[in-house]
Amino acid sequence: MENLLRPLIVIGGSVVLTLLIGWTTDLLLRKADQRHHETPLWGLLRRGRIPYQLVLCAAFLRATYDEAQLLEQHRTAVGRTLTLVLIGSTAWLVIRIAAAIVETTYSRYARVHRDAARVRRVRTQVTLIMRVVAAIVGVVAAAAMLLTFPAMRAAGASLLASAGLLGIVAGIAAQSTLSNLFAGLQIAFGDMVRLGDVVVVEDEWGTVDEITLTFLTVRTWDERRITMPVSYFTSKPFENWSRGGAQMTGTVFLHLDHAAPLPAMRDRLRDILRSCPAWDGRHYDLTVTDATPSTMEVRALVTAKDPDDLWTVRVTVREQLIHWLTETHPYALPRVNTTDAVLPPGHPNGHADGRVPRLPRSRVHEPPRSTGRG
Fold first, then answer.
1. With 161 labelled, which of 26, 91, 97, 327 sits at a CA distance of 20 to 30 A?
2. What is the pLDDT of residue 208?
3. DSSP label at residue 252
């Protein structure tokens, strides 16, 4: 009877004590979150309740396992397993706590500062810092797990002796990975590109959607994702439309006839922009930028507060200007001027001056008219 009750009391008591402490801690965090609405820290810390309970349970079982006298022939294996679970859950808990603290700091910064560019820069730095912290904690936890095995401790001396050579070989093999790693840190703290920036890379326009230590993802306007190494942004030129402010100036080009009414077009452009909510009201203009023997190029200049609104203003101006010209000034649209063909003087089919004679209407070939029958 004692052999049955002892492990039941030890293991059951550890589990019950873990659940009780975990429930109490979660209750305190919930009350603190309700009391302090200005900070999300307490609510974010509740995300770590699962690794927290794993830490407590593994610690209690590891400390009281000898008293349970269960599976004594496998005591070493069970103890090592509990130690591995304790190390892994502790690393998980540390990452959750660090994420809660960092995210709380970012939330406070975002509430205080209204500059969207600075907020995006801090968010980029915070994201990469969290990835670095998670990587460091993971490496330390993996090393601690390996050191629980005696064979790994015995091999430590030989590994240390060859660490120099291995480091050189690893550095050469991971040259690309290390360059991307340092490029990611340079992007994070050099403020080159930030999450949410509008960029043009490889003739593709999109928004920076994700930044890691090794790669960067750009979400294009048609919902595609372009993934490229972060070293691209430190070694090649690219356009960052959000750098130094999101305000932009755009153009709309129209090819029109030389008789197009430019003063009336300027008035119409002003009316179109005034009725367009996406126009920021800063500036507009309409000028002739080029001319050919048959048409002239007219450029409408418009402004907007960001690239998305600029696209809306441009397509609106282009559509409404063409519609207005079609309805009120159709002569202003491009036309193909034709004239009689000129033949060499003395040609048997032409006049003395070289003009081609017009055929009488009765001799002009016309397609047969439909009779309306099948």
1. 91
2. 85
3. E
